[in-house]
Amino acid sequence: MVLQRVASAFQSTNPFFLVLMQPTYVSHNPKHSCILGIPREFSRLFLKQNGNVVLCDSNGKSWAAKYATSLGSNQRSYVRLCNGWGAFVRDKNLQVGDVCAFELINCKQISFKVSIFEGKKSGFHGSPPSTDGYFPAKRESGTSFTQPLKARETALEKALAFTSENPFLVVVLRPSYIRTDALCISNHFARKHFESDLTSVDVNLCLSNGKSWPAKYLRRSIGNPNGKICHGWKAFVNDNNLQPGDVCVLEMTNHATKISFKVIIFKAIADANSHPLEGVSQKPLGLTSQSLKAATEMTSTLPFFRSVVLPLHLKEKRAGIPFGFVEQYLKPNMETVILKVENRSWPVKIASNPQNRQARFTNGWIEFARENFLREGDVCVYELDAVKHGLLNVCISKSDD
Question: In the record, what terms sit under GO molecular function (predicted)?
Answer without folding.
Answer: DNA binding
